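Can anyone check this?
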Amino acid sequence: MRAPSEETSVLSPAAFLVRGLAVGLVAGLIAFVVAFALGEPYVEDAITLEESAAAPASAGHHAEQSEQSEQSEQSGMVEISRENQKSWGLLTGTLAVGTALGGLVALAAAAVLGRLGGLSARGSTALVAVVGFVAVALVPFAKYPATPPAVGSGDTIGGRTAAYFALLLVSVLAAVAMVVLARRLCGRLDGWTAGFIGAGGYLLIVSVAAALLPTVNELGDFPADTLWSFRRSSLITLAALWAGIGVGLTVLIGRLHDRAAAQLARRQLAASL
């Protein structure tokens, strides 16, 4: 008979990961529904505006495009239709991103379990999801919000992408560093004070980084109402994705913790007999 210390704990990183992947898959499906319902109409409007602006192009330009299209077909490249882009393509993207994020959040929740003061398994998992949403989605979006087609120059896409990922990296590293700092301060200060210091330090770091990184202003004469609606729907989609991961994982990890606590209570009772 195995000793209790030799039993595999139900609170293993693998158990967290499996639940994170499952929750992320469901959250990706929710994000697809939100993006399709709220975002795609404005993407269609942007594409229409882009095509209207390109309509007066010369016949030579159209001939060049036709030649490039023929070359693509000869090289084996397949052009994806707009219908597939906004349906299966969008679904595949949200499912892949949701599953990956769910797994990462679950592993992070497993890593901090029992290391954030008196927070329970539910509380620490929820905190990880909130911090992840702020650091990975909200802060980079605030500086470099999503833009629809017909906005931005193709010549600057490399620089804009590099700036976005630079802010994303700073935001994530700052969030991790400030969580570690707040945890260490909990030994000297109360939890609320340590949390406020960590949050303030994070805001200071990302504010300085955002101020130093270049500002992108390539809107041109794109309609402001369409742009605002698109960005609003993009942010709602991100929030739906992270909310699905956070809520679902908090519920599942909470149940997992309750099961582990019940197992421990049974072992202790058996040992006392």
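Reply from J.R.: I decoded it. The two ends are 17 Å apart (CA to CA).
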